[in-house]
Structure formats: C-alpha cells, structure tokens
Amino acid sequence: FTAVHPDEQKFFNTALGLVKSAGRIVREAFEQPASAVETKSSNTDLVTETDRAVERYLIDGLHAAFPDHKFIGEESVSGGAKIEWTDAPTWIIDPIDGTTNFVHRIPLIAICVGLSINKELRGGIVYNPITNELYTAQVGTGAFKNGFPIHASSTQDLSAAVVVTQLGSDRRPEMISSFIQSYQTLMLKHNAQGNRSFGSAAINMMMVAQGSVDGYIEYGIHAWDVAAAAVIIREAGGTIISPDGSPFNVMGRCVLCTGTPQLSSTISTNFTHVQFQAEA
Ligand code: IPD
Ligand code: CA
Ligand code: CA
Ligand code: CA
C-alpha cells in the first residue's frame, strides 16, 4: 500500500469506525416493524427514513473529521442533478444498498463507502450489518472479509460459472429487453451453471470478490452502488470492466465483474449491442 495522500490511512480508518457504528442504526431499524417507505422516481426506486439517517450520520461524521472533503451520497444527490466529481478526497456513499431487500426484510443489504482521491478509487468498505460481514480493501492491500483475505474465483468457462444479474430500478423498455435477450442467449449458449440475483449491487460484487460466484453484470447502476465494491473486487484479484469490454468507469452506469479476464471476455462479446444510454 502506497498512500497518494499523507493522511489516507487516517481517512480510511475514520470511515471504517463510522461505518461500523452506522451498522447499529440499520440493525435496530431492521428489527422494528417497517417504517414509512417512500418512492423516488418510481415504484422500483424506494427510500426509507433509515437510508436518510445512515447517510446523514456518515456524512456528518466524515465532514467533522475532514471539513475539506467532498461527498457523493445517494440520498443527497438531488434527482437528475449532475454529479460533480473532483480531484479532492471524495466519499462515495450508499447508506443502504438493497433498500428493496431492507423493506422486505431480506437480510442482504450493505452500507457502502468508497474513497476517491484525484478521481482514483483508493479504498472501499462494504458492510452488511445484519450478517455482520465487513469487506474492506485499499489499493495495494488485498481484500478482506472480517479481517481474513478473500479471493475471486479462477473460473474461465461459463459452463462452470454462476453468474449474477439484477433488474435494477432503471426499467427503460428498449434497454431491458435487449439486455434480457442477450443474457438469455449467453447463458443458454454456454450452458452456464447458474444464475442468481441477491438484490444489492454491492452484495452481488462481494459474492464475486469472495469467489462464491464467478461473474456479475448490470446496467443502470450508479457510482454509489459500485465505487467501494470496485476496489474490493480488484484487490481480491477480480476483473471489473464495462459490459461492452471497454474500461470500467464508475460514473458509466453499468458494470461487468468476474474472477478472470477470460470470463469477462466471453460475457462482454455478447453485450456489445445492448441499447444502453447512460443518463448521469
Ligand atoms: C439498488 C440495488 C440493486 C440494483 C440497483 C440499485 P439501492 O440500490 O443495488 O441491487 O439492482 O441498480 O439501484 O437503491 O437499493 O441502493
Ligand atoms: Ca436507491
Ligand atoms: Ca444502491
Ligand atoms: Ca441505497
């Protein structure tokens, strides 16, 4: 690990402490009867008081410690506003990834905090406070789950692979139908071993990082869904690119990650024609 900022380790440790204590807010709410659920852009896009409380807690804590840092938080970015991403140390935050799971009391949810410096993703924390699984990585450290090293799978062939995908909140018909068609063709052509959807982009990516599944592809995701998890995937030895084979762009609204580049390449050659236009 070679820091690009003299205080980088302190930044990461501070965030780690805050994420762990934010876990309590989520755990307590998860055990209570469901509180008010609001919709944002549509009925597939939910928010609860807990999402807002966790985001406020994390931003307040980080802002108090590091007043000149910037934030890109899901519940603070107002709908449709252009995201401003600068070279300053920036915290990319998803207070609850998997709000639909949270509302349905499916225990697959994650608090996600990623750190970028000079627009480079430097550190990632993904914490499931219900199962108490804490995933961490910084560039050059390797990836860890509850302090133990994790590694992505070495599967190269789709016929031996379990692949994850997800219908997110973005349901534009042209995009969804060309995606589903390509996905179905790919999975059947190569007789893939299995298909899964865990309902949280970050959990999907942690399943790749720990080698439980071999690949994950989704269109429509946002920076806060994948920023922290991207660092963990890379440090676990996995590959992360755009589904069309071009380099991963955290603001690009789509992702393909796998344990091996061979598997990425098999998957991506089938997704070059998905009609996907990023909106932000
Ligand atoms: C969503 C989840 C879901 C994915 C969506 C995301 P949220 O995040 O990660 O798995 O399919 O694309 O928006 O809204 O629960 O934080
Ligand atoms: Ca959301
Ligand atoms: Ca999310
Ligand atoms: Ca969220």
From TrEMBL:
<feature type="binding site">
    <location>
        <position position="74"/>
    </location>
    <ligand>
        <name>Mg(2+)</name>
    </ligand>
</feature>
<feature type="binding site">
    <location>
        <position position="94"/>
    </location>
    <ligand>
        <name>Mg(2+)</name>
    </ligand>
</feature>
<feature type="binding site">
    <location>
        <position position="96"/>
    </location>
    <ligand>
        <name>Mg(2+)</name>
    </ligand>
</feature>
<comment type="similarity">
    <text>Belongs to the inositol monophosphatase superfamily.</text>
</comment>
<feature type="binding site">
    <location>
        <position position="97"/>
    </location>
    <ligand>
        <name>Mg(2+)</name>
    </ligand>
</feature>
<feature type="binding site">
    <location>
        <position position="225"/>
    </location>
    <ligand>
        <name>Mg(2+)</name>
    </ligand>
</feature>
<protein>
    <recommendedName>
        <fullName>inositol-phosphate phosphatase</fullName>
    </recommendedName>
</protein>
